[in-house]
Amino acid sequence: MAVQPQPGLPAAPTLLDVAAAAGVSQATASRVLNGSTRKVAVAYRDRVLAAAEELGYTANLSAQATARGTSSVIALLVADIADPYFGQIASGVARGADEVGLVVTIAITERDHDREVRLVRTLRGLRPHALILAASRGSDPAPGLLQELEAFSSAGGRVVALGPGAGEARAVTVDNHGGAVALGGALAGIGYRRAVVLAASLGVHSSDDRVAGFTEGFTAGGGEVLRVHHAGYNRESGHRAMRAALAFGLEPGTLVFGVSDMVAVGAMAALREADRAVGPDIAVAGFDDTPTGRDVSPPLTTVHIPLEELGYQATRAAVDHDWRHVAAGLELDVVLRASTPPLG
Amino acid sequence: MAVQPQPGLPAAPTLLDVAAAAGVSQATASRVLNGSTRKVAVAYRDRVLAAAEELGYTANLSAQATARGTSSVIALLVADIADPYFGQIASGVARGADEVGLVVTIAITERDHDREVRLVRTLRGLRPHALILAASRGSDPAPGLLQELEAFSSAGGRVVALGPGAGEARAVTVDNHGGAVALGGALAGIGYRRAVVLAASLGVHSSDDRVAGFTEGFTAGGGEVLRVHHAGYNRESGHRAMRAALAFGLEPGTLVFGVSDMVAVGAMAALREADRAVGPDIAVAGFDDTPTGRDVSPPLTTVHIPLEELGYQATRAAVDHDWRHVAAGLELDVVLRASTPPLG
DNA sequence: GAGAATTCAGCAAGCGCTTTCCAACCTGCT
DNA sequence: AGCAGGTTGGAAAGCGCTTGCTGAATTCTC
């Protein structure tokens, strides 16, 4: 908490400076420079534009926001921006915001619920146009959070949740269930009959949906899910869960479905450590289609999620006045690769 | 450009509302709620705090910024937030900002110079405390950019550049050269004698430094750099450059040094397509130590860059009043893995 | 060519907050 | 009693910008 202002430096030029330089009133300068409906005679307009250019004027967005009563920022809350999963979402959000001339402010929850509440509180102070929550993979929100969100939206802010929405929030979802059904079906279709699932904790919605969908699709195709191991969403959890699964013994030709690519990658590492060949011996599939999945060997079968598009849709939802929930959620595609070679 | 304000909703409570509810003046409320040096009698203070809590008050940061003449945001410019390289940097920046109670606003250049200039212009409007540039991997800045930066810093803003600084900017650098020397030395040390380098375009500073450093270290250790192929920094460039290198013919036991992990990963893919075994036949090394490098097989030898720390140092540089350039740049570590097995 | 209608620059109020000043009140001392 | 010195609440002047309103200048109409 030690941020000193600069010592006496020449401040940035203000609108008044520009107006004076152009020999017009502040009102006229404002109308020329910052999108107003009223038009200004071309002679004046040119003088103002020239003066602004000359001085290198940029409108003070804070002042503009106070005067207009509405700011030009969108706030984005993510769990971890270093994770490409959230990075891609952020990328889409930024693109959407850019399109409508908004600026994106980002905050990182580190998956800590209290922190999340604090951050929302801070961000509220920016009076952002909208608050986009991509903070978790859909476990239930902390109680304090709902209260903050309520305060925000009842003051005219818009809340967009990625994943199942909460309360007032608009929600942009992904069809986890459908994608998993398709994956299960496709893998049963190429001959797999026995599968082990490595999932995140129970209660994490997206994981639950994927497990349920996969089971449904795989069973419908004639396969059987032997066991579900619960650990987490990341690489390390996948590694742990895989070791647990190996302890039960795994016949060749068994399929391991990791509830995310990271889990699957962790599982692959564990398999290799146990001297089991990934692919011909034990097949592995993931979910998310992260770039890494393409580069591991064998390349990972997975379900593609258009994350960038998801982020983009979130800004649309935040900005469009009339917006209807993307009914079934964004559609997902199964991507079959060498980690699940066709069987028999 | 179509962002309508909300229709007549109850606005967020203002400081005046709180003051009224507490039965004190606005000045007193301000002093209680937003860090002032003056103290307020405990009886008043409690009433104000209670009222604020009751109303769910949050200071309007825009108004605060106009009044104080200084805002609480740090602006961050990255090339591509979906790229974990920048994601990690952003993560460090966010942590640093959080520590001093600042908020991070992010913009994405998409590696487009004009866009970058436009974005700086927009961000300037926020009158941010500092502007952190992580927009490129250090190719030379566009001329218009320098002008914008000059305007910003001469109005009291601070500019921090990651990589070689420009003009007024403070710079946080990474010892690319030193890291590459160490890598070259280590690989010569385990028996490699012939190397091919896959680099980005000439003129991209970080790439040039890495090539020069590697050559220096490798030669000093008794090795010889046969050729340098120039393509780019990403996976696809690595793939292309590797194909070009293969066209020249490559003896077993040759080492391929890709100037980034992504380049190396692309090279590995090209090698596999050409039925050359990575490791025993052709060794591959990268630079950056991205998570993917650990999961490809064989795991990739590389140089670890503390990117998160780099981002963190950037905020420190932005915030600390007296700050000295981290002299030689952040130190890098060589990480030897199975993609470069000891030779002979 | 006179009055009506239209255009459009500028005045000034106001956005939500900070901060300077002032006045009221309290000490503690002679 | 009387007064210097110290506290502390409140009035009000800004911060840089937007915008409703006013009224002068221009254009139109018959």
What does this structure look like?
The structure is a homodimer of 344-residue chains. Chain A has 344 residues and is of the alpha/beta class. The first copy, chain A, has 3 domains: 15-59, lambda repressor-like DNA-binding domains (434 Repressor (Amino-terminal Domain)), CATH 1.10.260.40; 73-172, 3-Layer(aba) Sandwich (Rossmann fold); 176-305, 3-Layer(aba) Sandwich (Rossmann fold), CATH 3.40.50. The first copy, chain A, has 13 helices and 11 strands. Chain A has helices at 15-22, 26-33, 42-55, 61-68, 84-99, 113-124, 143-154, 176-189, 205-220, 235-247, 261-273, 291-295, 307-319, and strands at residues 73-78, 103-108, 130-134, 158-162, 170-172, 194-199, 224-230, 255-258, 283-285, 302-304, 333-335. In chain A, the strands form 3 sheets. Chain A has a 5-stranded parallel β-sheet with strand order 2-1-3-4-5, with helices on both faces. In chain A, strand 3, helix 7 and strand 4 (158-162) form a beta-alpha-beta unit. In chain A, helix 5 packs parallel to helix 13. Chain A starts with 14 loop residues before the first helix and ends in a 9-residue tail after the last strand. The interface between A and B is large, with 76 and 76 residues. Strand 2 (103-108) of chain A pairs antiparallel with strand 2 of chain B, so a sheet runs across the interface. The structure holds a DNA duplex (30 and 30 nucleotides).
